[in-house]
Structures are given as C-alpha cells and as structure tokens.
C-alpha cells in the first residue's frame, strides 16, 4: 500500500450556536471516542491532538439583521478558528478540524486561505453538503448562521464584523465546488449562479456519477498548483446511513459514493486540510454516524480494500 505518511493535527471546534438544534458541541469528543486518532495512526500517520479551541469574546457587537442568532458567538468562533488555522496552515502539518456546526468553516477556511496566500498559492474548497450555505447576513430568513460561511469565504459584503475588517484573502468563487447539494434557497441560487460557483447537485450525481464530476475539479486544482480544503458535512450523506445531523435532507450520498469521493481525494494527493462538521451525537444511533465519518476520513488518508497501481499524472 503506497500511503504518504502525514503529520496530522486534530483540532476540536465545539461550535454549537450556528445551528438551530443543539448537540454539535459534543462532536469533537464523539470523533475522538469513535477512534479517529487510532484509525489514522493505524494507517501509518503521526497524530497530535491539540484539544479544543477556546471561544474568543469579541465584546458587544450589534447584529446587522435582527433575525441573526448568536451573532457575537459566531464572531468569536470565527476569530479563534481563523487564528488557529492560519498558524497550522503555515506549518507542514495536515489539520483536521472536528466540529461543531458548519459556521465553524468561516474561521477554518479563512485561516487556511490566509496561509495559502502567504505561500503564493490559491486555495480551492470542496464543500460536501446538502446545503450551499451561501446566505448573506441580509438574505438569511432563519437567522441560523451555519447557512452563511461560504458566502463570507467568497468575499460577499456585510461580513466585516467577523474578523474586524474586510476579508483579506477571500476564496475565488470559481475555486469552490459544492457537491451533493439538494436544498438551496432562491437567494442563494441567484448568487451561486451569478458568481460562477461550481455546484453538483444530487441529480447531476445520479446522472453522471461522483467520479466524472470530481475529476475535472481536481484537475483544475492540480493545474493551478492549488491547495485543497475539504469541508465534509454529515448531511452530505443520506440520513439512512448518517442520522446524527439536525438538518437531514433525504436523498444524500450513498455509502459507496462517499467512500469513492474520499478515495479519489486521497489518490489525488491534493488535499491539505479537512473539516468534519455538523455531527450531532445526541441524534446518533450508538455512534453509527461518528464511526462512518471516521471510516470516511480513513479512506481520505489511504485506507483501501485492494491496492491498485498508482498512475502518474
């Protein structure tokens, strides 16, 4: 088995206030209990656990839209995780951020983008999710901030409070691929189309297959000498196999589709950082979802059933 040994750093992000349903605060410890570290070590990697990031308290900040929930907490987590990710992104390690709801990506991905810019390389983002999370602070009707991080990361306006200044290193919308989406609001759809974000919904996956859709995106990352951040939401998966999420949407990725994505990502050698988000252990069935997410991470880091010859690119 030809596996590149990685120095992996686990970072807990017990972010709970971006979602409408409580429970994601327990996510980081559920991954640890499900044996994430042991799985990666068994594959030959070095694993260090940095524990959980602590929330930064930004002080009193008035939300620009009265429907927004837990706005100050969103700011605090974004700043704390941004600083941590920018630091890890500038060192020769592979960070895995253990969530926590998807609002945490505002900090993890922006920090990785800052580190990528310092290296003179573009950051690409593969967003594996049932939702596009592309609302602005003005367009969201629910006020649940886990629906806004990707709009912030792509440089849309109105988010200056998050880091206390305009986002210095936004991710180019053309460098984002959302895969598995099956729930998009009208306002999000308009912005996604207008900005040229790549979107592969479940119909495209049904018609073409995940391999056909993922390959050209990986080719673009490679051609641009880019770094690739993967943000894996539990609800990318069909709720029949992954029930531990507060935003279940039927018709998600199957067990094999999800593993194929991870296996292809491993084979590409392009992935440099990873989010595992929206695991709500309170809704799980004896750890079923946590174990599946750990198994998928194992596939990303080289676990395979039958070793195949590696083709050079």
From TrEMBL:
It holds the Pfam family Arginase. Its EC number is 3.5.3.1. It catalyses: L-arginine + H2O = urea + L-ornithine. Keywords: Arginine metabolism, Hydrolase, Manganese, Metal-binding. Binds 2 manganese ions per subunit. The keyword Cell membrane does not apply. GO terms for molecular function: arginase activity. Belongs to the arginase family. PANTHER family: ARGINASE. This is Arginase.
């Amino acid at each position: 088995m030809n596996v590149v040994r990685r120095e992996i750093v686990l970072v807990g992000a017990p972010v709970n206030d971006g979602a409408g349903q409580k429970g994601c605060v327990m996510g980081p410890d559920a991954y640890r209990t499900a044996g994430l570290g042991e799985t990666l070590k068994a594959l030959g990697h070095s694993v260090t656990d940095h524990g959980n990031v602590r929330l930064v308290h930004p002080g009193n900040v008035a939300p620009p839209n009265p429907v927004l929930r837990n706005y100050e907490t969103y700011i605090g987590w974004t700043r704390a995780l941004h600083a941590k990710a920018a630091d890890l992104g500038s060192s020769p390690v592979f960070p895995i951020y253990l969530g926590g709801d998807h609002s945490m990506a505002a900090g993890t991905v922006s920090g990785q983008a800052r580190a990528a810019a310092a290296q003179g390389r573009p950051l690409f983002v593969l967003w594996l999710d049932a939702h596009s999370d592309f609302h602005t602070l003005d367009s969201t009707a629910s006020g649940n901030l886990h629906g806004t991080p990707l709009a912030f990361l792509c440089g849309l306006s109105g988010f200056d409070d998050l880091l206390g200044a305009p986002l210095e290193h936004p991710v180019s919308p053309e460098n984002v691929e959302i895969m598995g989406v099956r729930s998009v609001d009208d306002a999000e759809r308009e912005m996604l189309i207008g900005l040229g974000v790549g979107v592969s919904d479940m119909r495209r996956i049904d018609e073409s297959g995940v391999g056909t859709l993922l390959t050209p995106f990986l080719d673009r990352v490679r051609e641009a000498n880019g770094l690739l951040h993967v943000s894996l939401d539990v609800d990318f998966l069909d709720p029949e196999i992954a029930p531990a999420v507060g935003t279940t949407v039927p018709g998600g990725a199957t067990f094999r589709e999800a593993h194929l994505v991870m296996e292809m990502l491993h084979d590409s050698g392009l992935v440099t950082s990873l989010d595992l988000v929206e695991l709500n252990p309170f809704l799980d069935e004896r750890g079923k979802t946590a174990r599946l997410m750990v198994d998928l991470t194992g596939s990303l880091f080289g676990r395979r059933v039958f070793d195949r010859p590696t083709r050079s690119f």
